[in-house]
Amino acid sequence: MAAPRLVVVSNRVAPIQEGEPTAGGLAAGVLDALRQKGGLWFGWSGDISDAPEAKAERTVGPISLFTIDLSRRDYDDYYRGFANGALWPVLHYQIGLGRFEWPEFAGYRRVNETFARSLAPLVGPHDLIWAHDYHLLCFAEAARAQGLSNRLGLFLHTPFPAPGVLMTIPAHADLIRAMCAYDLLGFQTETDRTAFADYVLRCAGGVAHPDGVLDAFGRRVKTGVYPIGVHVDDVRAQAETPANRRQATRMRANLMERLILSVDRLDYSKGLRQRFAAFERFLADYPAHHGLATFMQIAPPSRADIETYQVIRRELEAEAGHINGRFAEVDWVPLRYLNRSFPRNVLMPLYAEAQACLVTPLRDGMNLVAKEYAAAQDPAEPGVLILSEFAGAARELDAALLVNPYDEAGMARAMDQALSMPVEERRERHAAMLAVMRRNSLERWRDRFEADLRTGPA
Ligand code: ADQ
Q1: Per-residue DSSP letters for 193-219?
Q2: 228 Cβ neighbours under 8 A, 6+ residues apart
Q3: Hey, which of 298, 368, 441 would you mutate to test ligand 1's pocket, going by the most ligand atoms within 8 Å of its Cβ?
């Protein structure tokens, strides 16, 4: 019998061009799977229209892409409202930033139902349905209501918080019940999986079985840990391409000797404010680096129509100005803050050029920048990764310099240590990280999830 077809559902369908390299993470992992075996990818087009359920179909090689538009009201309630205004902050332990409204939660459910209703006619009885991320926690429940009895799995790219934190969302019980309509729930780390299981066992009367299987709400769901990875060799190859390298060297000629790099979406969960403050502390406490060290922060705006994101953007602009105002010399600007995104063929060589990479989220599901940075390094002369202990990646990359993103002095010390680290120690740490990343590759993430989804929770 032919392998069951893979149907991927995510908030957005990544823009795909035949023959073009794609972005990292979700898009790269999912696309590989779909390219090899063929399949269908379903999600929001990114457009807002008055004909919200208009479907657009496109095929790229063996992949069929179906998208729907959202109405303005759906977008406001589901995307700006519950998903990004309430759920995202709480999943990242930022409960003070969460803003919950019941009508927005109803809108979130409504859009999950729209997804299920629009997808149902496209799905065959044996298809495996793999949903992604925090936008679709209620999708399986909606799909079951549409009569779909397919294997349904969800991979959560974000952290899953401890029950006491999750419960600050008034609709927490509805969310967990809906999540249990999946057959398989995948998490980035054991901490996330345990937090989910804790809620189910202690707050929802669930029962645990071996291998992460839980019974709750009259259903059986398997939970598992699938740390997302990167294509290690592809990243290194992109970093090394001569044209790309020339570009990076040119950029580097304009920078100072010691480059500390950070690359993030502009998001409060990424700890940028705390990182800027730590860099200021570094400059104050370690003057030996003056005139030599440059910190480059690349952070394109994201979710720019949500107020908390506008606030963080304003704060960072002010803070960058303050730091440069305090420390810059006529021939040295310590902080470069670039509010835009760069293509991967620019980013990867830049990773390779940087002596240190500061990845200090307050919470992060995984953080692929950390893995990409480590993968991009020249093994003979690698840079140093400074990594928040609250990034999922810290579970695997414990050979990085691990820091607490709330500890300004500790982060400043780590920057000094990174820029002064002997090459033997850098090589040793880098080799350890590379070994873990090769083991937990992007292929393994995808294959293990798919295999468990196929087997089901029995
Ligand atoms: P994100 O929060 O978007 O992803 P991350 O994993 O760091 O975070 O980045 C995803 C991709 O975006 C990476 O491949 C990176 O290169 C790219 N990227 C980030 N900033 C960029 C920039 N300034 N310019 C260009 N490219 C940039 C979510 C979760 C993470 C989880 C991923 C995958 O929040 O915790 O690691 O999904 O599961």
Answers
A1: HHHHHHHHHHHS--EE-GGGEEEETTE
A2: 25, 26, 29, 157, 188, 365, 366, 368, 442, 445
A3: 368
Q: Would you tell me how many other CB atoms lie within 10 Å of the CB of residue 93?
A: 17
Q: Is 24 in the pocket of ligand 1 (CB under 6 A)?
A: yes
Total count of residues recorded for the chain: 458
* Structural contact between residues 349 and 242, judged by C-beta atoms closer than 8 angstroms: no
Q: Are 258 and 291 in contact (CB under 8 A)?
A: no
Percent of the chain with pLDDT over 70: 94
> 185 C-alpha to center of ligand 1: Å?
21
139 contacts 162 by C-beta, under 8 angstroms: no
Taking the CA of residue 264 as reference, the ligand 1 atom at the shortest distance is: 20
Asked whether the predicted pLDDT for residue 132 surpasses 50, the reply is yes
Q: Whose CA is nearest to atom 9 of ligand 1?
A: 368
Any atom of ligand 1 within 6 Å of the Cβ of 343: no
pLDDT digits (tens, 9 = 90+) for 365-389: 999 999 999 999 999 999 999 999 9
For ligand 1, mutation pick of 94, 154, 265 (most atoms within 8 Å of CB): 265
Active site (annotated) includes residue 157: yes
- How many CB atoms sit inside 10 A of residue 113's CB? 17
Q: Minimal CA–CA distance to 140: which of 122, 106, 116, 123?
A: 116
Task: Name the strands in the sheet holding 6-12, side by side, starting at the edge strand that comes first in the sequence.
Answer: 55-60, 63-70, 39-48, 6-12, 128-132, 151-155, 184-187, 219-225, 213-216, 207-208
Q: Give the mean model confidence (pLDDT) for residues 308-317.
A: 90
Q: Which residues contact 453 (CB under 8 A, 6 or more apart)?
A: 128, 130, 151, 153, 183, 184
Res 110: pLDDT: 98
Q: Taking the complete model, does pTM exceed 0.85, yes or no?
A: yes
What residue spans of 7-92 are helical by DSSP H? 26-37, 72-74, 88-91
| Smallest CA separation from ligand 1 atom 22, residue | 341
How far apart CA 353 and CA 336 sit, in angstroms, is 16
At position 116, the amino acid (one-letter code) is A
pLDDT more than 90, % of the chain? 80
CB 39 within 8 A of CB 62: yes
Among 69, 267, 364, 452, the active-site one is: 364
Q: Measure 343 CA to ligand 1 centroid, in angstroms.
A: 13
CA–CA separation, 232 and 82 (whole Å): 35
